[in-house]
């Protein structure tokens, strides 16, 4: 049996490179036009390995969004962790606004995903699941334990706010996102 010289970390790096390539292609292509081979060629990764570590274009795009959300949550946590005088509500708002700032350079990708989600219900469900996960993380890091039925309802309520504000954000061309805020 031959041993693979690729470490798990190397495969994580390749998956991240594939996700970055898929994300870049989404800026100029409809999701239905992006093939895994295009992504692997752009990332400079063997087609077979791209399939093994990436799975599908949709999975790569969702992985990129998860990475952006992870970055957002950690950056926000760094900003608010020692802010004892700031309310939980203000910390939640800071986390949500930071997420909009993180995604600001990627409005075209978000628009293309929104259009694709209307044609692909499974994508819509996965996007909603990712949004729910990041909202839950923002609430927990802000000091809201989101336990039980009330916690679940708070998460759903914040998701409703995010979806409503996202419509404004998509049209907000200001560098300071004043209309979104």
Salient structural properties:
single chain, 181 residues, 0% strand
Give a verbal description of the structure:
- There is one protein chain.
- Helix content is 74%, strand content 0%.
- With 181 residues, the protein is an all-alpha fold.
- It starts with 7 loop residues before the first helix and ends in a 10-residue tail after the last helix.
In terms of DSSP E residues, the strand content is: under 5%
Radius of gyration: 18 Å
N-to-C series of helices and strands: HHHHHHHH
Low-confidence stretches: none
Largest sheet: none
Structural class: mainly alpha
Helix tally?
8
Shape from CA axes? globular
Assign a percent range to the helix content: over 70%
**What's the total number of strands?**
0
Tell me the distance between the termini.
58 Å
Mean pLDDT: 91
Note the topology:
Layout lengths: L7 H19 L9 H8 L3 H8 L2 H24 L7 H16 L3 H13 L1 H22 L5 H24 L10
Helix pairs in contact: 1-2, 1-4, 2-3, 4-5, 4-7, 5-7, 6-7, 7-8
Summarize the structure.
This protein has 181 residues and is mainly alpha-helical. Helices cover 74% and strands 0% of the residues.
């Amino acid at each position: 049996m031959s041993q693979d010289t690729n470490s798990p970390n190397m495969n994580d790096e390749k998956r991240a490179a594939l996700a970055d390539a898929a994300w870049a292609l989404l800026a100029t292509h409809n999701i239905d036009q992006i093939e895994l081979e295009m992504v692997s060629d752009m990332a400079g990764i063997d087609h077979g390995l791209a399939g093994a570590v990436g799975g599908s274009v949709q999975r790569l795009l969702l992985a990129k969004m998860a990475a952006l959300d992870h970055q957002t949550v950690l950056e926000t946590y760094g900003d608010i962790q020692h802010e004892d005088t700031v309310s939980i509500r203000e910390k939640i708002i800071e986390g949500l606004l930071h997420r909009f700032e993180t995604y600001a350079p990627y409005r075209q990708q978000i628009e293309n995903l929104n259009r694709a989600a209307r044609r692909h219900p499974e994508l819509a469900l996965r996007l909603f699941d990712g949004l729910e996960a990041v909202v839950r993380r923002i609430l927990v890091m802000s000091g809201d334990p989101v336990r039980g039925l009330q916690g679940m309802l708070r998460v759903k309520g914040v998701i409703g706010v995010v979806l409503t504000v996202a419509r404004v954000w998509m049209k907000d061309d200001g560098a300071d996102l004043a209309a979104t805020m």
